[in-house]
């Protein structure tokens, strides 16, 4: 079956309310924490994408039963240290770094060997960022050149650790916190700022967690072996999926969108801060607090006078998954935009910094790069009037979706072919359907 799409025309003006699917980070955390709770948790609006389905299938291998009932997933947790580890098991995390890294934290006590594998993209990614701290708990981990496959064999002699997480990786920090839940004593983490959904969930579940923060770091203490009851949770919409529609609307003429009930945790809203500085018209309506997480509708209008911006690197972590589309705004801005210290972008599902630079150059945008810093020379009249073919990007879901948004925003005469349409199943299976609602013509 054909696995590419062709785009020939812009989307003409639209004024719509849309919903995007549930947040991927929160969905995976809900599955993993529900597996550790005692009893049946109900998770509403769980993202039904490959990454999350792989999370459900992974916990199922340890005796956790789950089923979808009406509009929620019921997950029957067996408590802390409750996984059935009586057999050697192989888990396939597919494309998901979050799943592969976080679940290792739940396996520090495994009585049998668990082998984790993943797809081609995940098999290229660094696992030392989680295997190094987890080894300090006393568990046994082997990996091939710091990447997948990783094999973990737990121990009965776990000890809490004191760890300094320097990259600003939420996956690393969360793997340590999940390991801490399964370990006697108090684990202490000093972590460079990154998304804090795990911390908020642990707090909501009344687990023994203490957090102090300053501008750059969080100081977290988690005490282990406390059982907790099953819980109900409604997963809010994903700002990373919304990002594609935020940017499309800002770049389209006479358009407006309202994206309903999106998680706007400050550790995730870098895109809003950056785009507002660039003169994009974005507002947050109907703000609420839900179980420690902030949510709102995001309203965006066509933005005429977009200007260049020098992005301070303290915003990187809160925008890390959105830079691909932020660069499209910079491409249409008046003036130069600069982004610094983006090395982590090359460690995602594909080397996104390298891929973004060749993509921008391919559509006629001038880019200068010095190591992990880039300057994008914006052109308010940017138009795409040649044929381009997007392929060989490691099936990175966000590269596929960014390429669609670029095509629908800039095309004027050319034709854009984008391969590997199935990549959207990783995080946002209804992406193309939602685009069609706004009038997109896709062949
Ligand atoms: C994620 C954390 C981020 C992000 C990824 C999801 C998470 O990676 O890029 O898509 O759910 O914890 P880091 O571990 O580098 O923060």
How would you explain this protein's 3D organization?
The protein is 29% helix and 28% strand. It is built from 13 helices and 23 strands. The model has no long low-confidence stretch (mean pLDDT 98). The structure holds shikimate-3-phosphate.
- How many distinct helices? 13
Mean pLDDT: 98
For the largest beta sheet, what order do the strands appear in spatially? 2-15-17-16
List ligands, each type once: shikimate-3-phosphate
- What does the main sheet amount to? 4 strands, mixed
Could you estimate the helical fraction of the residues in percent?
25-40%
Question: Radius of gyration from the CA trace?
Answer: 22 Å
Contiguous uncertain segments of 5+ residues: none
Based on DSSP secondary structure assignment, what is the total number of beta strands?
23
Straight-line N-to-C gap: 13 Å
Structural class: alpha/beta
Structure summary:
It contains 13 helices and 23 strands. It has helices spanning 24-36, 50-60, 97-105, 120-123, 128-136, 170-181, 197-204, 239-251, 270-277, 323-331, 352-362, 397-410, 431-437, and strands spanning 4-7, 15-18, 38-44, 65-69, 72-78, 89-92, 114-117, 140-144, 147-153, 162-165, 186-192, 209-213, 217-223, 232-234, 256-263, 281-290, 293-301, 310-311, 336-339, 366-370, 373-377, 388-390, 416-419.
Can you lay out the helices and strands and say which pair or pack?
Elements: E1 4-7, E2 15-18, H1 24-36, E3 38-44, H2 50-60, E4 65-69, E5 72-78, E6 89-92, H3 97-105, E7 114-117, H4 120-123, H5 128-136, E8 140-144, E9 147-153, E10 162-165, H6 170-181, E11 186-192, H7 197-204, E12 209-213, E13 217-223, E14 232-234, H8 239-251, E15 256-263, H9 270-277, E16 281-290, E17 293-301, E18 310-311, H10 323-331, E19 336-339, H11 352-362, E20 366-370, E21 373-377, E22 388-390, H12 397-410, E23 416-419, H13 431-437
Parallel strand pairs: 2-15, 3-14, 6-7, 10-11, 18-19, 22-23
Antiparallel strand pairs: 1-23, 3-5, 4-5, 7-9, 8-9, 11-13, 12-13, 15-17, 16-17, 19-21, 20-21
Residues 25, 98, 169-172, 174, 194-195, 320-321, 344 line the site of shikimate-3-phosphate.
